[in-house]
């Protein structure tokens, strides 16, 4: 049964901004959401139960209590919510998940900000585009200085399902589309989303130095992999992990 189980009933919110952090291209939304939770030491606000969520339990560092793999975190002072997911939602479950949670988002007067990575082939600074479900959300993007898309495209997966549900039911929602590395986690793209999209939309300031450090580590690991591949022969060909950035 679909349910959002609030674990902290004492939190009071008026019109919060919600950041969606599902795994996707470049793990952009996931990294942005996780970074916000860590940077602001956000509190566990609710557990999310939907049929499309894989039946697994998550355990966390220095904590014995198991939690659901999809959760909401809150920073009441900043009027900020983050939807954190430890698991991907498959294409077959995207629509069910969208129907599962979107109604609650609308009932609580949340402005959802959905994030999607757009595979890019260049090494230039990632471009950020914004889309909206109505004029109200469009005005928020214009005020935030987020550009319109440069070409036609579509958004799939749970993020696309959530935006489709919002469009169908006339709910206000924003979509942020950022150019991202299609093969590796892309903290630079996450940094662009935070600084150029989330900060002005939520009227907050977010420290992003850690994301820059991660980008340097990932690039170093990528160069090491390229070097190993160039030096490899038939006898030494094998798969090797790239630490946590594989």
From TrEMBL:
SUPFAM superfamilies hit by this protein = Cgl1923-like
Top-level taxon of the source organism: Archaea
Q: Which stretches are annotated as coiled coil? A: none
Name of a matching Pfam family: PAC2
Q: For the region Disordered, give the residue spans.
A: 227-246
- The protein depicted here goes by the name PAC2 family protein
């Amino acid at each position: 049964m679909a349910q959002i189980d609030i674990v902290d009933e004492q939190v009071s919110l008026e019109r919060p901004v919600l950041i969606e952090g599902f795994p996707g291209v470049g793990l952009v939304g996931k990294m942005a959401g996780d970074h916000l939770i860590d940077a602001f030491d956000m509190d566990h606000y609710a557990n999310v139960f939907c049929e499309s969520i894989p039946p697994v339990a998550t355990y966390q560092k220095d904590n014995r209590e198991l939690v659901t793999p999809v959760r909401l975190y809150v920073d009441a002072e900043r009027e900020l919510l983050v939807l954190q997911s430890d698991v991907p939602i498959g294409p077959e479950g995207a629509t069910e998940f969208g129907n599962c949670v979107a109604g609650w988002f609308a009932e609580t007067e949340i402005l959802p900000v959905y994030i999607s990575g757009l595979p890019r082939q260049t090494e230039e600074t990632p471009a950020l585009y914004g889309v909206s479900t109505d004029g109200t959300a469009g005005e928020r993007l214009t005020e935030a200085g987020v550009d319109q898309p440069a070409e036609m495209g579509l958004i799939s997966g749970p993020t696309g399902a959530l935006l489709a549900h919002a469009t169908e039911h006339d709910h206000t929602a924003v979509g942020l589309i950022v150019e991202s590395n299609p093969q590796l986690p892309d903290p630079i793209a996450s940094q662009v989303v935070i600084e150029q999209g989330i900060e002005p939309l939520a009227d907050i300031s977010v420290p992003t130095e850690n994301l820059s450090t991660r980008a340097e580590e990932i690039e170093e690991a990528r160069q090491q992999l390229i070097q190993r591949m160039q030096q490899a022969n038939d006898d030494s060909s094998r798969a090797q992990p790239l630490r946590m950035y594989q």
